[in-house]
Amino acid sequence: MVMLLPAALPAQGLSLRPAELPPAVAAAPHVIRWYEALAVAGAISTTFLVDEPLQRYLQRHRSNTSDDVATGFRHMGQPEVYATLSLGLMGGGLIAHRPNLTRAGGRLAVSIVLTAAEFEAIKRLTGRARPDSGLGAFHFDPFSSSESFPSGHVSVAFTVAASLADDIHRPWATVGLYTLASGTAFSRLNDDRHWLSDAALGAALGVTTAKLVDGHWLLFGIHPPRFLLDPVGPGLAVSFSFQ
What we know:
The protein is mainly α. It is built from ten helices and four strands; from the N terminus they run βααβααααααααββ. Helix 6 packs antiparallel against helix 7, helix 7 (99-126) packs antiparallel against helix 8 (152-168) and helix 8 (152-168) packs antiparallel against helix 9 (171-190).
């Protein structure tokens, strides 16, 4: 764990109050319970039951309008958005000398990298066929070229939404960001590239990873690196301790 030592604070007459800390540091994180994880797993499992009926319904009602809407939303799960946001926040924070902004970009970047590693591993392990393959929702061929489960676009979109929503900490931002992420999920279903269960797992992965990285949630007692959370300013020293 990384700890901050207020070595020179008394000399400068400064104090670091809980209200001055990011929400993830000022408030105790929510510890994920086994029954919460089981409930989410159960909810995702039930979506398998409607995968094929929903896919048929969406494809029967697919139109130029739905394709245009899907094209707009799809970008949130693509590099031109998430890479620009994370690098832009870090770079902007460094240029403007705003460490909180830099750390927000760092948290977003770390969350995206971890989410990508997670969904790529699950994709290869499950080898689920995509809807447009015609093989059905229950065709799995591990370590094959089939990589439908979960959706990478949706995973990243919800990672971005959760990470930025926690940093902005405003209801309008939370609603807007999660709406955009949900639109990304719709785009993957409309384009016949993913099943509903692919999107559901992607959303769960993205939100969970972002909230673990920003310190809002805690799993197996693993804390995120404190330098991503704590403000480091004049008079503060950084030290490392392991428990």
